[in-house]
Amino acid sequence: MNAYCERVIGTVRREALDHVLITNEAHARRVLAEYQSHDNGHRPHQSRNQPPPDAQEQPASASTDDLGNRRLLRTRVLGGTINEYRFAA
Predict the structure, then answer these.
(1) Within the chain, how many helices (H) and strands (E) appear?
(2) Average pLDDT over residues 1-28
(3) Tens digits of per-residue pLDDT, 33-65?
(4) Distance between CA atoms of 40 and 55, rounded to whole angstroms?
(5) Is 29 exposed, middle or buried (0-12, 13-18, 19+ CB in 10 A)?
(6) Is 78 or 44 the better-scoring residue by pLDDT?
(7) What is the pLDDT at residue 68?
(8) Which residue, among 4, 3, 38, 6, has the nearest Cα to 20 in the 3D structure?
(9) Which residues contact 77 (CB under 8 A, 6 or more apart)?
(10) How far is CA 87 from CA 10, 52, 59, 69, 72, in A?
């Protein structure tokens, strides 16, 4: 169990906490809650064959010919520290 905990803590530190100056406990809780939302709702997880834990189904893959015609949207997480990308509907 220790290895799993160390892996999660290291990931949170590298992806979020190393880039944000935490000012107090309330700020730390907000940052960690926003990162948790990103991690569970958008970030791909290799152990789940790439979909995030909160995904209901595997996203539809686009053909390589269609990629040039689709518009890409960026959502900034944690003030731009992390970026999420999606195709526009």
Answers:
(1) 2, 2
(2) 91
(3) 998 888 888 777 666 666 777 776 655 555 555
(4) 8
(5) exposed
(6) 78
(7) 64
(8) 38
(9) 34, 35, 38, 83, 84
(10) 30, 16, 11, 10, 5
